[in-house]
Amino acid sequence: MRKTDTDSDNVQMSDVLCDFCHREWTEDVAMVEGHQGSCICGSCLRVAWESVVEGNLDDSTEGWKCTMCLEHRDDPCYRSPAYDEAYVCRRCIRLSAQALRKDDGEWDAPGPNRPE
Ligand SMILES: [Zn+2]
Ligand SMILES: [Zn+2]
User: Fold this and answer.
1) Residue 112: CA atoms inside 13 Å, Cβ hemisphere, count?
2) Ligand number nearest to the C-alpha of 73
C-alpha cells in the first residue's frame, strides 16, 4: 500500500508500506508488489509461507479477497494478524516467494517446500 499523501508521479521507497504489517520499505526490507500498489514484505511473506504452504493453515473468511491479486480464490490464504483486511492467497505467496528468491539473494522461504 502507499501512504495517502504519496505523489503518484514520484513514489519514494518510504511511501510504500507493507499491507500486512505497515512497515516502510527500506533498503533492509525485501518487498514484493502486487496489484494497485499492494505490497508484502519479506518477513510477512515468510510467516505467510510457514502458515499456508508448510502448515496447511487457511485463514479464509466469507467473501475474502486477496490483497495482492485482488481476486477471491478457492486457495487457502493467510490473513494479517494486525490488519484484518490484508489477505494473501497461496498462489500469490508462491509467486512472491519465487520473485523474492530471484531478486533478493538474502531471502529464502522457510521449510522443506521452498520453491526451486
Ligand atoms: Zn510486512
Ligand atoms: Zn492472490
Assistant:
1) 1
2) 2
